[in-house]
Amino acid sequence: MINKENTSLSLKVNGGLDYQSGFAFIYLPTDLQSQRAEANPGFAQDTRTEVYNSNIQVAAVFTQLAMGGKLNLTTSAGAVRLHRDFRYNYTRGRNLPVGVQNPSRGGVQQLGTEYQLNTDVGIFAQQEANYDDKIIGTVGIRFDKSTLNGDNFNKFYAFPKASLALNLTRFGDWATKSGIISQLKPRIAYGATAGLPNWGTPYSQLDITGIGGLSGLQPLTTLGNPQIKPERATELEYGLDLGLFNNRVTAEFTLYNKKVVDLIQPLNFAPTTGLVSTNINAADLVNKGLELTIGAEVIRSRNVTWFVQPIFWYNRSEITRLTIPERLTGGFGATFGQWRVKEGYSPTQIVGQPRILPTTDPNYASSWTVYGDQQPKYELSLNQRITFFKNFEFSALLHYRNRFTVVSLQRVLFDEGGNTSDWNGTTETGNDGKQPNGIYRQNVNGLDESGKPKPGYNPSVASFLKLREVSLYYRVPKAVLNSAFRNVVQGIRVGVSGTNLLRWTDYKAGYDPENSNFGSLALGSGVDIGSAPLARRMMFHVAIDL
Amino acid sequence: MKFIRYSILTAAVLLSLNACNPFRTDLQTDPNYASVESVQTNATKGQLDNLAIGQFSLARNALATYNQVVGTIGKELFNFNSTESRWMTELNGLRPIDNSAFYNTATTGFGLPVRQANIIIASVAATNTVTDVQKSGYLGMANTFKGLAYLYMLNAQGTNGVRLSIENPYKPSKAATYAESLTGIAKILDDGAAQLDKAGTSFAFATPSGFAGFNTPTTFKQFNRAIALRVAIYQADWAKAATLLPQTFYNATGDLTAGPKHTFSATPPDFANPLINTATVRIVAVQKLFDDIEAGDKRLAKVRVLATPATFSSGVTYTTKYIQNLYNTANDPVPIIRNEELVLIAAEIAAQQGNTAEATRNINIVRANAGLAVYAGATTKDALINAILKERLYSLWYEGHRWVDMRRYNKLGEIYLPVTGMKVLERLEKPVAEVNWDLQNP
Lengths: 546, 442
Prior knowledge:
The complex is a heterodimer of chains A (546) and B (442). Chain A contains five helices and 25 strands. Chain A is mainly β and 546 residues long. Among the domains of chain A are: 132 residues, no CATH class; 48 residues, no CATH class. Chain A has a 19-stranded mixed sheet that branches. A four-stranded antiparallel sheet of chain A has the order 16-17-18-19, with no helix packed on it. A two-stranded antiparallel ribbon of chain A has the order 9-10. Chain A is globular and about 80 Å long. Chain B is mostly helical. Chain B has a single domain, classed as Serine Threonine Protein Phosphatase 5, Tetratricopeptide repeat. In chain B, helix 12 runs antiparallel to helix 13. Chains A and B meet through helix 1, strand 4, strand 5, strand 9 and strand 10 of A and strand 1, helix 2, helix 3, helix 6 and helix 16 of B. Strand 9 of chain A pairs antiparallel with strand 1 of chain B, so a sheet runs across the interface.
């Protein structure tokens, strides 16, 4: 709109629409062993989902050069409106005729439809300043409202942010003189964002029920909370970027302190009230951690280059405020281990039977034994890339996770079925050598006379080292391509790659300590009941560029 | 051309922005469900009717867990569950009982029918779409099921007691003592009976087919009084029990299976009978109980003899040849309370009050029905009570009574233990969320 020598003003209008549709089908044939004993054998489900998202953003950007072109100022402000429309329906059929997969042919049918709609509006303003690439800073603020916030749907919440970075190598010529340091950049950043409540949080719902063909209404066990507010996640991150020898060696060091205020947590009611929970802004959570990445080109020669990149990181969590009763979640009960949400403790801590205090103590009921933390002490990964004879490229990614706790039911289940490899052995830690390990480890005998678990009990603390990815590629040289295909083919690359090929672990209570029966959850994944480990895959690749 | 098209597009966007305020949003109501608020003021008759059906439906909540947990603890039956060994280990005292496990449902599953009743009571009070007589019908029905749900909850919790006021979930009352809990439940049932007296000749709402014969305020009250009778014998208040007995559907010459029933259907939103054997759940009888049954006892038909005895070997090993035969299909109805129980209660009241002839007369009604000879044992009070407990064991097998009966007579130590090391728990543990609530809200 305006474009002068030292100033410019532009107006940007962005809009987008996207539409996704999904189809999922599950079929369990009528003559499947697990189905034959069912009252209504055979199962099929046809699930369709549609998501329609739209957004429109209007922003004005004003740039200005000052101090003789050394200071670059960018001011932007604008507004955004987002709308999400989600529709889901399924048809489920049981008691299917033999060989039929269509759920609508089932003797017993069930239908389900769900709609979700929300609209979010945001207003933002930001000022960026860059002084001669020496000092780079930003301050900004954003105001957001969302219809997911129940009765607070029309209230704007403010989320500020700011960042500052110093490019020290550009202050004077000391860096060039030293000949070693090519980049030295301390940085600090702060930002706040909203965590919106899940769909449905404000609603106290009446579900339908039926008896003898009569239709009824009954409340769900979750109580709605129309007073819900968004969570506020703030992150303070500071670190240093370092480059040596013309950036042949790089290092990034970052410390962070993420604080989530007004974390939405279920307030668990006394369940004999007929209600299980309501979601409220109940807790503050702090995540502190460290990340260190080093990258180095160890060998750089005509025929061989070898790049290594080790990364070290860890995270520690703590619930710093909790206004709801402490609660256990995830897993299959305290006998096997559950996640405990409790003030002053890590929410990923796994606790369970037996209880430590005497039964006469008023705090007996929740005096759980701590088994460990689902989060590891630390993690390490090592990425390597070697190219040799110009056209071969080899890469490998190793991942090490140190001492994390797994709720393992797999060995219990296998012991109960008499299927563990050392069932007949007698050398399990703590076993007196008089009975088979398979009996010793089982529930009844896994506890000593005082009800305390004997060694070798569940859950399990484990570490692992995995070769996550490995690959070898060969690129056919240009000269060969030119002589063989003239200029029709620009490139040919062939290779093999594998994922999850090798695993070293001290985990004895199952196949793979990374197994999770519940997939990925904030709290409660990492329960191993003997599901198949991560797929081990080998792939052969041919890529031809025309 | 291109320029014109872009201009039209820009104009359209600007127009649509002008047409509505882009910052404006509206309260999003729930597009999927009816809300609790919608029935709390000025509920229509249709809404009240739906809530009433919900109450009948919710009377089946936790039924299977309750009957199976109580049956297991009382050692009348076991659940050979192929994916859950705690049915056999923890519930039989072979390892510490947990307050955070699936069997909490035998307590907590009865909170929902109580809440439903409270919603109905509040909705009825805040509407004028039905007459006062009709209102009494909704209230009497709701209070009856509320009392019944509380009674199951109390049976599971024993001396831990129950919270008698849960209208405000943020301020539920503390658990009352066992005696206070029984008094409170009796009061709820008495309120229901008084409301049913004022409810006219018919209910305003439809009732499920399992309540045939109990679907008017007068006959439904006989069901209400039968539950109140159970409470009275748990209170060992024999005079009160004797007063209540004739108000129930007790019939010395009638069908012993008479009584209201839960009905089921596998078609959603209804559900299948949850007490049947499935691929994972096999309800088996403790073998000795049915090995020891008197020759010719027709109640042996409650179980079926397996060609190959069933063995459970996860955590504990036990073998039995009897599997439950009461419920075999998804639509089989389940009795809530039967005339047979009332006859045995009549015998118990008489035995407690020293009326030996009346006690044996009622025992013999049940024995004759089972194809057995008249009772020939001693007629002391203790002998009669033991005889009644034995008849109750077989007559009410898998109906959730054995453990409660033996507990109220302080005879838990007399329960036969099929596996060395097994114990009979006195009560289920207070669920962990109940404990935590009280710690947070002292």
